[in-house]
Protein 1
Amino acid sequence: MAHHSWAEPYKIKMVELIKMTSREEREKAIREAGYNTFLLRSEDVYIDLLTDSGVGAMSDQQWAGMMLGDEAYAGSRNFYHLRDTVEEYYSYRYTVPTHQGRGAENILSQILIEPGDFVPGNMYFTTTRLHQELAGATFVDVIIDEAHDPVSEHPFKGNVDFAKLDALVERVGAGHIPYVCIATCVNMAGGQPISLENLRRLRKWCDQHDIMLVHDMTRVAENAYFIQQREHGQQDRSIREIVHEICSLTDAATMSSKKDAMVNIGGFLAMNDPGFYEKACALVVVYEGLHTYGGMAGRDMEALAIGITESVQDDHIRARVGQVEYLGQKLIAGGVPVVQPIGGHAVFLDARRILPHIPQEQFPAQALAAALYEESGVRSMERGVVSAGRDAATGENHMPKLELVRLTIPRRVYTQAHMDVTAEAVFSVMEKAEAIQGLRFTYEPEMLRFFQARFEPVA
């Protein structure tokens, strides 16, 4: 069978010029940023792979939609368009707009969690876990063991381990588990999907135990693509159909629309239960804005509604994941240790294997991200011990098995040539790996420290 290349299902209509920098300029910039790529100025970055959140390129249809913003304080027509689109594509009956995903996580946690509760999930995400903890819950990881192993080729590393779930129920009782939080395309595991079979089984498990199933649906379309490509019997279904089924298996969802739906800002909390919706409407007014705008401008709700329809198109998602796969395969061919299989939104470099001389206490992934920027102007993100934070009780660092640097590909932004340049930059850093030094904190914030922490090289 001949292998067919994919090409982008769009053509470029407008460009944003970017600045090339010298090595001296980059060394100064990363030093002033305390070796934290989050603290770099974007104008000093050549290829920005920090995140795929809010940095996608909107389509001409989305930009046209921005002109149709109904900026009424109450009852904006864009809200009703968004609500109807969420129901049509994602199945949820009620939508509460929020300024972004963590606004939805906050409201969800405030409503559903009682102090002393336990919330199982298929690996933590930083803001999700923090909102759960601030509401008084303990996060419990119930993802399969393969997810913590960067070299395992398991096709669905986002799957839930039911033995771990059963053990939790036995230990704390179903009454202390308000919901199971399931992420599609698990970010911290390397953008790894959950299978439809596993999710259907989880639905039954939740029904048996009378526990809600909440969906972190930030990258649901990418997850649907992996199901279509990898899961038996799913090859002939459209992305749109699979996305709808995934959502319909869950009771509620938090969405950061800045990923899949390609808008620069926005999110929502969605659900099917009218009582839950009523409580969410009451809280959204406190934290975000009226329940028909919830921290979003009318024009942004319109762009989001259009972005949802574009995100589930097969051609779009094939090219989106295809670009990530292209970079990943190029790195693997060059001998770079990465998390396998390649995920849906990013390629994750295995900093432990690239920098074996740096102990985890000296933040090898943070050091690798800083070195990659110095070398090339490519900005990436640490996803290891710095992101994992400290144990609230002991004050000790959480020591995750995965110590990763994330090369996150924005949607519809970069070309294949940018991916080639990125791969060459990683190869250059690999050649000089032994010269990279570990780091230590010079400033450590109490919460979500990876955003604002500062470091210096360990002498």
Protein 2
Amino acid sequence: MTADVSSFDQLDGVVRGVPGVAALYPAGSMVATVLAATLDAVAQGATAAPLVHIEQRADGIRVTARIGIGAAESSSDVSGRVHDAIAAHLEQSGSPPVVQIVVIVASVWLNV
């Protein structure tokens, strides 16, 4: 199956569109995030690097998303919806096999 790499770039929007997600944070390491942002800015004229992190592995891909949720939301419910949205998006786009999807609730927003 051939992967549509542009579908990886769409993951930020997929995650932001999940009900209960109030924020999306960079999920890669700080060094990798800064390096990617710098390289993207140089190559594409200050385009922001994707926040959802994709790691290519020999057996498939690992996806990590760090989210903020509203205080009235259940972290397990929102995390489950984010997981399912990522999985469905990647399946529809014909991505390589997904070996792991990690959703980290990094903050709870009181004013959402």
Protein 3
Amino acid sequence: MPAVVLIGAQWGDEGKGKATDLLGSRVDYVVKFNGGNNAGHTVVIGDKKYALHLLPSGILSDGVVPVIANGVVVDIEVLFNELDALSARGVDVSRLLVSANAHVITHYHRTIDKVTERFLGKRQIGTTGRGIGPTYADKINRVGIRVQDIFDEGILRQKVEGALDQKNHLLLKVYNRRAISPEEIVDDLLSYADRLRPMVADTSLVLNRALDEGQTVLFEGGQATMLDVDHGTYPFVTSSNATSGGAATGSGVAPNRFDRVIAVVKAYTTRVGAGPFPTELHDESGEWLRGRGFEFGTTTGRPRRTGWYDAPIARYSARINGVTDFVLTKLDVLTGLERIPVAVAYDVDGMRVDEVPVSQSDFHHAKPIYEELPGWSEDISGAREFDDLPRAARDYVLALEEMSGSRFSAIGVGPARDEIVVRHDLLD
């Protein structure tokens, strides 16, 4: 089973880094295929915590080749800062490969991202301001800068000047900001060329050859299903395809080569930024979940919105992504609750709806219909087999599994690398 996709099943922050790390020692390549440094993975190894933003989690696993594929947008300054920080902590980062076709985030993308969001006022989307959306917009508008352009000063200069012809008018006349000098951007990007060059490759070719040789490749999605630009809560979404289909377009590996889709789902629900969130809690329970789960953004530090588990969203993710296995994370956070509500359907204008409504207006007004399940008080962090869990915790997992559309193959019972219960082999 050489090609495996790992994605988030909710609005991100489900613990994909932990799931990737669980598989890391058994795979040969870990590929990031979408997004940029607008999201993060936190991986705990022993007493060390690593916060990754742009780099694939596989960079922390010995012998694994981490790949930033063509579907990613790359802030080169952030890339080198992350690499330097890991190197300073003794992590070998020499194996990293970066696609020549990946698009580059520049200073003007970050500037436009921030001023546009402020300009929207009450209609703000909740962007991180890191230039992700404007970079993808340039990609689609065919005025983007790709990694390979940095090695041809003439081409780079032409592309930057072409992009800024329009953007400087926008900055000056609409946003009342100073114009950006093309020379400033070109000089900045050229300064990275020598260090970047050894990392750059035709990653599509590398990955297909690896699969031909029977090696195992893990495709790691940034953000999550409900933030997918096509299938998420549009317009409160990211600017790329965070679902399993994005793994093919974002890496140059054909869809028929993928064998398994693993979706990570949290034992409750969170999201960052604006947009509909049916199970969101605005009371002490929400604050309790945020505090217990340390629900603050890895990249931004922003407090996450919190709510109970939403089974229709899990079913939607199972359908959209073709999920073969769920990894349930942060079950330990729920320890101490006497009763645990789970959303099993929605009330939309007085009618019961069992699936995620296709209409964003209906979804925005959807009210969760809850079932309550018994909680538990025992510490579960030491559990390594399913039967080690308290009866109520096992029943909670089994109830969620029945509601969610695919089997729960692994269960996170704590933040550390080994605090996980494996029910089914994810690669078998």
Protein 4
Amino acid sequence: MKRKRYVLKTRMKVFLALLFLGYFGIILIKQEIKMDDQAHKIEHLKEEIAQTEEMNAELERLIQYTESEEYIEKVARERLGWVKKGEIIFIEKKNN
């Protein structure tokens, strides 16, 4: 006895092909959306890195400045009232 072969009808083949293509199309779209979000995150992180590097450079310049003789003299004059030999300090009276 011969077995009957099951043959898919043309409509069923088209339906399965469309289902298959639709499934992979949806997956492709989801991946594109996810990749776009990640690209935006990467761009945002690059901007943050650039800002942090600028701030770091500014802090490095500030460290260099605070270690200089000029800064030490300025602080000594402003906060401690120190003067060099031969200098005269004029103190302004405040009227209340």
